[in-house]
Structures are given as structure tokens and as C-alpha cells.
């Protein structure tokens, strides 16, 4: 069986730093020949090694769209996540959704792409997709110097006069009305007043109002990085403003506020609950908040127009200027004396700017696995989790930055380095990283407090749009703080929270939260998915695809495991018999020794914080592996009988038996 692209000369002697490029070339060649299994195995290796690169993700999506048309929407969504600001990937994803009937998802997410696309004149193809999805009236706006620029698109019958549209510019106290062309011509409006944040609203032909994508626009000066400041060792804890920005999701808002209000009596720290309603589109949310405010339970601020997460948070932080600020997402729940414990940590030593606790969903502060979201605990489970955390003696750990789901900030630092920056950061995500790095530049530090646990549902306000917002704001953070993401990566690699995490896990083993812990540790990595993707789960078994060779899989290969030398011996035996047309598909650890046999395909294990497009088991299914070898069959379905790589495994004899009975599993 010919498979020239897989010979040792193609890959076995390729330098490791060039291997990804060589494998992409091999994947393209295999795809052109219709050997889709070969193409996917090679592309999957590169996608897992280089998750932020778009080219391997595009190739993988093309192969999957061809081989498994029912996976097209999912595959292009995964490709888009690798480079969310790429117009070609945006269009390819939306086109695949359109073909699968995902008009509602296109109408929800697609307009968020318009500001950047309109500003650069690359919006025509996107607008056509939005029209097909039923979006008749839309547009975009952006800040250009001291002016507001934008475009408005309103569908009108052929031959009708050039359409016009009404825009409303609003801040917290004022509103201005403008008449602009609605045929896609670029408009330019003078900013009504400097130093303000302006919400831009499009009045639809039927009178309904729609926030124009790109809004709000901030016209104040970006907070400057201050010179290093010395912390005052004598500073005492202050009263706390618990600032909760609210937009939608009544049930989550109620659960959050009820838990906060119930906890106040458990805390000695004086606290005010400051809720900021960011012009919620759900009347039930605003009505319920009104009742809480009328009863004196909360201080309620309401934006006259939608100002976005950053500016809504800033407004709440300004309400009580002498208070420390405890930022709290509206999809969290808290327990016990959580405020006191966070405040003690904030003031336990000078120089601490902000502290953040454990959570089930909070990037590097996530538990039980770092940077991997777990299901939110219920109230009973949260009480057990938080009580167990409070009882541990784990020390606080310095962080590169806090996670904004729950973040107690020292007012002294806010007064020194300023509020969150809405001038360059788009609406939400990354604003707390920018603030934390600004504070670090001024000489302050941030801590993880392992003696508090807060439940967090996660990704409510932005949903699938989160991917775009993270990508847009990451570029800002990278430009301002070039070392941050390297520090973040090093923190994840070194895992200074490992000891505290192990202590909490041990404490939970016999607690009321033991069931939650088992569920959380067994949960698949998740993410906010568009409905068109979420409602079409993958089948349990994918049919094998055409390949240029036969394959045998090695499941979760561990280079330090007892079976590693047997795998290498088998690979060398296969290499000595090229007429077999056989290759090893090694899932897990790889090595140069395995690569140099010339008969190994390697795919790093699919474990981590990202939602995988293809898990390890489906990679084996796609490749049509004739057998699965492992020294630990955990994770394999019972029907997939594994060959154990124990002391009884003889590579030469096993290979001879496989050759004699090629249809045997």
C-alpha cells in the first residue's frame, strides 16, 4: 500500500521546530488525494500544538466539512475561535451556520463583527450574510479622534428614496438626536461633549431602539500608568461597596443578590450592595431590582442607556468614594463571612491591591482544575465548599492578575491608578487584567485567597460573543503589557496553587460537596456555544475515513509509563516491515525516538481548558484504528477492548498475529 507522504524522509528526520509546517503540507497533500483520515490526524496534531493559529484550524474545518457535512457548523466555529477577528473566518463560520439553519445565531453574533469590518471597508460580504439571516436594519459606530463615525444599513424597496435613520447619542444625563444616511454611507458626528461615555442607539423604522454595534464610545483620556507607589502599612480596612453590574437573566440575578443579602449578617465588615442596571432589556429584571431598592436592601443605579460592562462597573465604583470595592458578577453566589475573609487578606500585608477567591469558573482561580470551568455548585454544595475552604490553612498566593468575577480592590489603589479603562477595551473581558497590570506597574501586588469559594455560572452577558471580545481586548493588553501572557503561561505551568488545591480537594472528599467534586472532576471541558452548534451534539461514534494505510492506536501514551519502551519497540518493528502499510497513532506523549521510526503519527492528549472539536476517542475512530494499545484503559469505552502494554506484551509476536489476522481487533 503506497503512502509516500508518510515515509521517513518526509517527517522522521524533520527538525522539531519545522514539524508543524511539514505536517500541514502532508495534510494538504492527503486532503487533495481524498485520504481524509491522514489529513485530519496531521491537522489535529498542529491544532493541538498551536491552538491560536488559524491556518491549521481552517484546514481541519475544510476536511471535516467535506468528510462529515453534519460537523461543518461546529468545525468552522472552532476555526473562528483560533482567530476571531479574521474576516474570512467570520464569513466562513456564518455561511456554515446559514446552511444549517442558524439564522438566529447569525443575527445575534454577526452584527458584533461590523464595527471593525465597516471601519476597514471589509463589510460587504458580512452584510450579505446578515441580510440572508433576516437582519434588515443594522450598522456600526466607532471613535475616530474626537468624532463619532459609523455606517447605518436599512433595507428599502428597489427604487425607493435614499433611506435616512435617526441616531440617539446618550450619556448618563443627556441625549442628542441626529439624522444620518442609512444606505451604508459613512457618517461623522462631532462628539457632543468631551470626557463622557456615549451610547449610540439606532431608532428602527418601527420606532424600536437598537444599540448600534460598537457602542458605547468613551471619550475620556485613558488611565495612565503611574510611578511606583509605597503602600501604607498602617492603613486600616474600610467599608466595602459590593458592586454588581446587571443586564439580564432574572433567575441568576435573584440568586446572586439573595445570597449576598443573606451573607451580610455573617460579616463584620460594613458593606453596601450597589447594583447598576445597565438598561436591561428584560423588564422583569428592572422591576425586581426596583422592589429591592424600595425595600432598602440595595443601592440601585440605573443607566438611562446601555453603557456596557466596563462603564457600568465604573459608575458603581464611584458611588461611595471612600469604600473599598468588591466587584461581583451577577451570575455568582456567595456564602458566610466571605467579605471578612477577603478583607483580612487584602490588609494582611502592605502593598496588596486586589484579592480574588476560589471558584468553579474563574480562569487560573478555578477549582478543581486550573483554567477549566466546572458546573456551578448549588447552595448546599457551595456552603460545604466555602466552609471547607475557610477551614484550610493554605497560604495566599501572588497572582499575575485577579479574575473579575469576584475581586476586592483597595480604594487607595483605585485613587492612584484609576478606574477600568473603556477607551480601548471593548465592552468587557480583559478589563481586570489591564487594571491589575496598571496597579502592578505602580508597585502593587495581587493575591489569590484559597480560604474563600464563590460559585460562578459564567458567560451570561456576552455568550458566544465572548470569543470576539476576548480576542479584541487581548491585543490591547499585549500591546500595553508585552510580558503579561508569558507570565500567565508560566503561572499555569508552574501551578503555585497546587498545594492549596490539593488541600481543598482532600477536605471535600468526605464533605457534603463530595458529590459535586466527583461531578466536577468528571465534567467535560465546556464553553458557551451558539445554539446551532449546541443543539447538534456529535454522535457517539464517527465512521472511519479513507486513509492511505492501516493504523493501530496507543491510548494516552506516557513516556514515563511502564509500557513506553514496548511502544517504541513496536514502532521499530513496524518500521522494519514496510510492506505491512501500518502506522502507530500515538495519543498522548511523543518523543523524537518515536518520530524517527517514520511510522508514528502523534496527537497530544486532548485535555485542557478548551472545548475540543475532536476528543481523543473520536480521533481514533476517524483513523479507523484496528487495535488500541495502552497501559491504562481508563477512558476507553467497554466495547473497545484494549491490548494491555504489560509484561506479557511481546511487540514482535503481537505484530505477527495482527498480520496473520488483519481483521482482528
Question: How does this structure look, described?
Answer:
The longest helix has 15 residues, at 19-33. The chain is globular. It is 38% helix and 18% strand. By secondary structure, the chain is of the alpha/beta class. It contains 25 helices and 22 strands. The two termini are 20 Å apart. Strands 9, 10, 11, 12, 13, 14, 15, 16 and 17 form a nine-stranded mixed β-sheet that branches. Strands 3, 4, 6, 7 and 8 form a five-stranded antiparallel β-sheet that branches. Strands 20-19-18-21-22 form a five-stranded parallel β-sheet, sandwiched between helices. Helix 3 (36-49) packs antiparallel against helix 4, helix 4 packs antiparallel against helix 5 (72-82) and helix 5 runs antiparallel to helix 6 (87-99). The model is unreliable at 1-9 (pLDDT under 50).
What is the average per-residue confidence, as pLDDT, rounded to a whole number?
90
Please state roughly what percent of the residues sit in beta strands, choosing from under 5%, 5-15%, 15-25%, 25-35%, 35-45% or over 45%: 15-25%
The oligomerization state is single chain
Shape: globular
Instruction: Give the termini distance in whole angstroms.
Output: 20 Å
- Which residue ranges are poorly predicted, with pLDDT under 50 across at least 5 consecutive positions? 1-9
Radius of gyration: 28 Å
- Helix tally equals 25
The assigned structural class equals alpha/beta
Helix content: 25-40%
| Strand count | 22
Amino acid at each position: 500500500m503506497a503512502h509516500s507522504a508518510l515515509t521517513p524522509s518526509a517527517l522522521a528526520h524533520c527538525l522539531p521546530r519545522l514539524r508543524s509546517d511539514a505536517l500541514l503540507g502532508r495534510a494538504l497533500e492527503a486532503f487533495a488525494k481524498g485520504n481524509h483520515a491522514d489529513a485530519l490526524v496531521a491537522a489535529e496534531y498542529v491544532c493541538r500544538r498551536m491552538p491560536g493559529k488559524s491556518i491549521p484550524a481552517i484546514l481541519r474545518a475544510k476536511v471535516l466539512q467535506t468528510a462529515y457535512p453534519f460537523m461543518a457548523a461546529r468545525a468552522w466555529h472552532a476555526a473562528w475561535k483560533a482567530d476571531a477577528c479574521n474576516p474570512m473566518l467570520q464569513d466562513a463560520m456564518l455561511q456554515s451556520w446559514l446552511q444549517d439553519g442558524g439564522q438566529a445565531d447569525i443575527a445575534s453574533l454577526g452584527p458584533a463583527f461590523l464595527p471593525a469590518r465597516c471601519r476597514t471597508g471589509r463589510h460587504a460580504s458580512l452584510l450579505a450574510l446578515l441580510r440572508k439571516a433576516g437582519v434588515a436594519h443594522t450598522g456600526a459606530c466607532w471613535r475616530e479622534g474626537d468624532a463619532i463615525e459609523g455606517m447605518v444599513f436599512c433595507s428599502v424597496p428597489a427604487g425607493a428614496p435614499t433611506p435616512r435613520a435617526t441616531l440617539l447619542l446618550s450619556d448618563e444625563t443627556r441625549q442628542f438626536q441626529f439624522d444620518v444616511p442609512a444606505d451604508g454611507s459613512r457618517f461623522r458626528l462631532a462628539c457632543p461633549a468631551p470626557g463622557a461615555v456615549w451610547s449610540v442607539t439606532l431608532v428602527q423604522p418601527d420606532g424600536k431602539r437598537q444599540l448600534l454595534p460598537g457602542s458605547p464610545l468613551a471619550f475620556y483620556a485613558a488611565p495612565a500608568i503611574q510611578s511606583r507607589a509605597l503602600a501604607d502599612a498602617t492603613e486600616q480596612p474600610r467599608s466595602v461597596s459590593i458592586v454588581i453590574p446587571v443586564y439580564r437573566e432574572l433567575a441568576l440575578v435573584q440568586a446572586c443578590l439573595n445570597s449576598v443579602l443573606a451573607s451580610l449578617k455573617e460579616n463584620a465588615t460594613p458593606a453596601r450592595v450597589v447594583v447598576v442596571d445597565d438598561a436591561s432589556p428584560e423588564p422583569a429584571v428592572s422591576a425586581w431590582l426596583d422592589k429591592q431598592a424600595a425595600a432598602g436592601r440595595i443601592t440601585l443605579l440605573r443607566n438611562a442607556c446601555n453603557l456596557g460592562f466596563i462603564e457600568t462597573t465604573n459608575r458603581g465604583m464611584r458611588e461611595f468614594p471612600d469604600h473599598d470595592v468588591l466587584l461581583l458578577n451577577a451570575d455568582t453566589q456567595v456564602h458566610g463571612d466571605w467579605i471578612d475573609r477577603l478583607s483580612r487578606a487584602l490588609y494582611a500585608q502592605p502593598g496588596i491591591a486586589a484579592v480574588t477567591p476560589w471558584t468553579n469558573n474563574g480562569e487560573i482561580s478555578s477549582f478543581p482544575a486550573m483554567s477549566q470551568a466546572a458546573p456551578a455548585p448549588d447552595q448546599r454544595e457551595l456552603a460545604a465548599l466555602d466552609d471547607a475552604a475557610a477551614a484550610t490553612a493554605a497560604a495566599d498566593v501572588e497572582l499575575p492578575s485577579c479574575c473579575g468575577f469576584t475581586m476586592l480592590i483597595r480604594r487607595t489603589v483605585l485613587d492612584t491608578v484609576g478606574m477600568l479603562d473603556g477607551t480601548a477595551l471593548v465592552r468587557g473581558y480583559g478589563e481586570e487584567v489591564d487594571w491589575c497590570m496598571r496597579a502592578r506597574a505602580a508597585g502593587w501586588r495581587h493575591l489569590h485567597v484559597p480560604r474563600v469559594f464563590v460559585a460562578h455560572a459564567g458567560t451570561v452577558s456576552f455568550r458566544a460573543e465572548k470569543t470576539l471580545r476576548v480576542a479584541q481586548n487581548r491585543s490591547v493588553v499585549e500591546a500595553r503589557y508585552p510580558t503579561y501572557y508569558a507570565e500567565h503561561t508560566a503561572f499555569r505551568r508552574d501551578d503555585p496553587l497546587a498545594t492549596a488545591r490539593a488541600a481543598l480537594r482532600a477536605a471535600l472528599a468526605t464533605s457534603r460537596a463530595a458529590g459535586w467534586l466527583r461531578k466536577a472532576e468528571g465534567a467535560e471541558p465546556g464553553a458557551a456555544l451558539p445554539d446551532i452548534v449546541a443543539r447538534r451534539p456529535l454522535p457517539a461514534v464517527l465512521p472511519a475515513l479513507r486513509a492511505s494505510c492501516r493504523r493501530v492506536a496507543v491510548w494516552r501514551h506516557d513516556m514515563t509509563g511502564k509500557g513506553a519502551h514496548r511502544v517504541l519497540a513496536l514502532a521499530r518493528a513496524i518500521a522494519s516491515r514496510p510492506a505491512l502499510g501500518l502506522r502507530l497513532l500515538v495519543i498522548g506523549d511523543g518523543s523524537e525516538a518515536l518520530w524517527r521510526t517514520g511510522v508514528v503519527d502523534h496527537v497530544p492528549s486532548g485535555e485542557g481548558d478548551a472545548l475540543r472539536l475532536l476528543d481523543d476517542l473520536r480521533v481514533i475512530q476517524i483513523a479507523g484504528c484496528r487495535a488500541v494499545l495502552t497501559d491504562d484503559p481508563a477512558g476507553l469505552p467497554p466495547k473497545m477492548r484494549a491490548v494491555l502494554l504489560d509484561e506479557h506484551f511481546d511487540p514482535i509476536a503481537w505484530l505477527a498475529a495482527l498480520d496473520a489476522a488483519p481483521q482482528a481487533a
